[in-house]
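Checklist before submission:
- one chain only
- standard amino acids only
- sequence pasted in full

Submission:
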Amino acid sequence: MSLTCFCSHTIRCISHRISYRVWSCSGRKMNRAKLGTMVNGNNCYSSKVVVNDPKLLHQKKAAIRLVGPSKFQVIADFDNTLTKFWVDGCRGQSSHALLQQDNPEYNAKRDELFNYYHPIEYDPQIPIDEKTKLMVEWWGKTHGLLIEGGLTYDAIRNSVANAVIAFREGVVELFEFLEERDIPVLIFSAGLADIIEEVLRQKL
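Returned file contents:
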């Protein structure tokens, strides 16, 4: 199986920057009984799942089964999708939030930006077009600070090692299940590819 990260932005100050990377999953032993319920749908993990058109869903599933694994690929978001929202009773960090530069001054500056823009992101009273412009502004300022303050691979590795981030239950087993069938996983994220890679490297 290959894990491919497609991130909407990267950082120019990091050398050897590429838009995607390919990963192989580690060979851990699968919990097949647990995974079987996930794949076959015999035991839903949440009673709060709502399907608008069950008939259409079954048609899509039948079409996927018909063409087989050679025509199948999995596309997933990263933060709070593959990773947990809560980790040991604490709010899990995103791939952006966990990053700590070697220069504390720039960490503080990025925190100031977060405290200003994050409430805007979730404010339902702000029109979407106005909010979009502000989010792009936030992105530009934050990444400008990363470049200005310098960002190293050592900082990324240390940040991930000390981060409150973990994969959801079943993610490792799912990746292994897909690997055995040579089914690719494509990770689409607004996060930074180098950080996501390091999380995969350390936390899987």
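Reviewer check: The CA atoms of residues 37 and 138 lie 42 Å apart.
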